[in-house]
Design brief:
Number of strands: 10
Helix content: 25-40%
Order of helices and strands: EEEEHEHEEEHEHEH
Radius of gyration: 17 Å
Strand order of the largest sheet: 2-3-5-6-7-8-9-10
Bound molecules: iron/sulfur cluster
Number of helices: 5
Structural class: alpha/beta
Distance between the termini: 29 Å
Largest sheet: 8 strands, mixed
């Protein structure tokens, strides 16, 4: 178990997607992702490395406590990159600080298995974004997290007007393979700019209603466009 390595400094955010949208959290963006998708919207986490920030378990805990004091945050978001690369760090963190009940939210592709944290699953929300449908590109991997689904999770799938048939077809096969009910699933519009969100959102919302899925906007893109650290 090494340190937690971040690709940018931690900061306060409002969750921009999924079931806890709008909630205030402290965000830690980890360094590294083994998947390297062609259409990755956060490729800076695994390319052009060299600006890393590193924390030990105690330093990580002290930062969370500081954000609780300054901003009253109730949740910690860990995103990336791919957080599962640091699962032994989080195991050691929860072992040491399990009596301080802090809720976590992991934004993860589903590439790796999270069973190592099973004991603390009740306090963790996993938001999975496996690359299926239009985002699949050249990615061919096993989504191991889905063989061991945790208590609290969502499945977020990015779709677009031009690829909707393929997106929905692959989603149907995926949810069948892993027995995922529709109420865990969120369709989200493709795009990394405000203009793309405006262009896609009404269509994706209608498709969500039509197919009995949840819809999630990408709030941070609507508000901040393609700005980083928001
Ligand atoms: S899994 Fe996510 S972070 Fe990793 S390369 Fe793909 S889009 Fe980027």
């Amino acid at each position: 178990m090494g340190n937690l390595i971040l690709s940018e400094k931690e900061h306060i955010v409002l969750q921009g997607e999924g079931p806890h949208i709008g909630q205030k959290m402290v965000l830690f963006r980890v360094l590294g992702c083994p998947i390297k998708c062609e259409k990755c919207d956060s490729a800076f986490t695994w390319q052009n490395l060299g600006q890393e920030v590193q924390y030990s378990i105690d330093e990580f805990y002290a930062i969370i406590k500081d954000f609780q004091k300054r901003y009253g945050i109730k949740r910690v978001m860990v995103t990336g990159g791919e957080p599962v690369l640091y699962k032994t760090f989080f195991e050691a963190y929860f072992e040491k600080y399990e009596n301080d009940y802090i809720e976590f939210e992991f934004e993860t592709s589903g590439y790796g298995d999270w069973a190592i944290l099973r004991k603390w699953w009740p306090r963790i929300q996993f938001n999975f974004s496996p690359k299926i449908g239009s985002l699949k590109g050249t990615v061919h991997t096993i989504w191991a997290a889905f063989d061991n689904l945790p208590h609290n999770y969502s499945l977020k799938v990015v779709v677009s007007k031009s690829t909707i048939d393929q997106d929905l077809q692959e989603l149907t096969a995926f949810k069948k393979q892993y027995s995922i009910a529709n109420n865990y699933i969120y369709l989200m519009p493709l795009g990394t700019t405000r203009d793309e969100m405006v262009e896609q959102s009404a269509f994706v919302l209608e498709k969500s209603l039509e197919n009995n899925y949840n819809f999630s906007p990408r709030l941070h893109v609507f508000i901040y466009d393609d700005k980083r650290m928001v």
